[in-house]
Specification:
Elements lengths: L1 H8 L4 H17 L4 H24 L2 H38 L1
Amino acid sequence: MLNYVKHVTQDRSIGGIMRTLKAILRAIHDGEDGHAVVALPGLIAAVGAIVLAIGAAEASSVTAYIGGAALALGIVAAGVIRHREIDYDIYDRLEKLEK
């Protein structure tokens, strides 16, 4: 991945920068680490925390409720998706080693 990104970053134009970002995102998504899938609920939780803070600062209960719900959903989903995407693969590999 790094060789491809180094090759793409030599082009300093806007198109070259966009190709570099696309290459980085593709490498993260295609990698076996599973970061792209696991990061999405974290981003939802971060947005929820920001909306919750805005709602609390403005004393707007509706905004605070929506932000709190998004934060809670993001936290729960992050744990579930991490367990499903990463832990199941580890357990599967351990089961295959035991056989």
